[in-house]
């Protein structure tokens, strides 16, 4: 099975660093919208495709723009929400990385299915500050859940630290922040 991890388009939270990291619920910028539109040519979607998105406005907007006009399956999961990389127990989740509530996702993104079988715990706190050991358990469960869908390819729209954490888990390589994908950058992994 092929997993294609795609980083969301440019978000408002990166425009005026480090101050902008304290922006709550940042949306895509104009550049981010352009980047999301380019995904249509780079990764043309079919109705049989599945996209799993982080419950963040910038990832959900990326999915909506990219999948416009295609009735593929779109799912929101907190198991691909923002994740700090590398982990530091002294760090806390910044406002730009606080996940949307289930109700906010339902209200604002009506064409995207809300994955409610996954524990409410992850919808409340996300995976941002999990230890590497805790994350490994989450990653195993998430990838198993994806495989059960039976699709040959699953797209996952997420965040730089999350994508790098999953890549490190899947490949066993030691990675650094230098391995982060750029905006709408991607990583293909067979698992």
UniProtKB/TrEMBL annotation:
It comes from the Bacteria. Pfam families: His_Phos_1 (PF00300). SUPFAM superfamilies: Phosphoglycerate mutase-like. GO terms for cellular component: cytoplasm. InterPro entries: His_Pase_superF_clade-1, His_PPase_superfam, PGM_Phosphatase. SMART domains: PGAM. GO terms for molecular function: phosphatase activity. Transmembrane segments: none annotated. This is Broad specificity phosphatase PhoE.
